Every structure is written in C-alpha cells, then in structure tokens.
Amino acid sequence: MRKKLTILHTTLATTTTIPAMIRELYPDEFDIVNVVDDSLLNDIKCSGRMSASIIERFIQYACIAKNNGSDALLLACSSLGKAADIARELLDIPLYKIDEPMADQAVNSGNNILVLGTVKSTLEPTSDLIRSKRKSQEQSITCILIPDVFELYEIDREQHDQRIAEVIQEHLNTYDVIVLAQASMANAIQYITQGREKIVTSLPLGLQQLKEI
C-alpha cells in the first residue's frame, strides 16, 4: 500500500534532489507532497536564532501534514531541528529529521568531528544534535562555515560542489569524521577521490529511515 509523505523544504535546493532520491530508493511506495517556505530559513539567518514565531509556523506546517492524510513528515532542513523536537510532542504521525541518521553515524565513526556548513544557522543545530548523541565526553566537535557558497547552488552547482570539496580536502587529514551539515552539500563528495569514508552526509542516510513507515 502506497504511503503519503509530506516533505518540508526551506530552500528550493532540496525540492528536486530529495523527492527524486526517494523515488529511486522506494519505487512506487510514496506519494510525495512538497511544502516549501524559504522564509523560515531566511528569518533564522536574519535573526540568528530560533524565534517563537518560527517554531509556531513550523508546527502549523506539521499540522498541515497530519491533516492532509500524510503517514509521515520529513524535515529537509537542519536549521529547524529544535522546532521539530517540539512538533514531535504534538503529532501522532512520525516526524523524521533528515540529519538525525547522519549524527548517529558521525558519533560512531570517530572522536574528532568536523561540521561543515554553507549556512551559518545550520552549524549550531547540527553540532547540538551530534553532541546529544556522543558516546563519550572525549568526542570533540568543531564547526566551520564555508562562506559565499550557498548562493551558488542555483547559479553554478558545479562550482558550489567544488568549493565545498576543496574545504573538505583541506581538513581530511586533521579530523576523524567530516559532517556536511546540509543536504544541499551532499553532491560535493563526488569530487573527493581519497578519504570518502571519513565524510558523512544526510543523503541518502536521512532517507533510509523512511523504510520504517
């Protein structure tokens, strides 16, 4: 029986890649509803924090997913993780965070963890998520922002991916694990020829959890 899945996107960058990957992983298993509101991410970037208004709007989208008959909601944005935790308490359908399996794998892969992001607002929620899953206090988490890259995604995707790959390459020998904080960064791994096993991304990991539905 086909399941209905609502995906909440906060950027157009994920609206093509994630649904296509879901259809590849689960042929004919999901009817997908895409909900896009880039003002959520823009407001976090502008204010530098998760406001009550942003949380309230996210909960409204979560309720929409429940009321449109969805079997589950997938959050495609790492910046809204704390809002998702609150919404989980209110929903009676599963709410999946795309970056949660990535955090689990990161803490199981080494002690010296680097989180890379192209949007500043994703770094703190991602590092907090990883920190909440640490196996020991010896595990350290460092965050680095790659500036002036996120906007390239829609303009020049190849350059976007190559710029990220360059930064990954610079740090491969320094860290046990490198986490790419956003789903939009996942394709950069194609430009890494050695050391790929150190890199953890939310795609496709974050979609494999949908098999639970």
From TrEMBL:
Could you say which protein family the record assigns here? Answer: Belongs to the HyuE racemase family.
Q: What name goes with this protein?
A: Asp/Glu/hydantoin racemase
What is the native source organism of this protein?
A: [Clostridium] innocuum 2959
Q: Which domain of life is it from?
A: Bacteria
**Entry-linked Pfam families:** Asp_Glu_race
Q: Which Gene3D superfamilies match?
A: 3.40.50.12500
List, in alphabetical order, the Gene Ontology terms for molecular function in this entry: amino-acid racemase activity
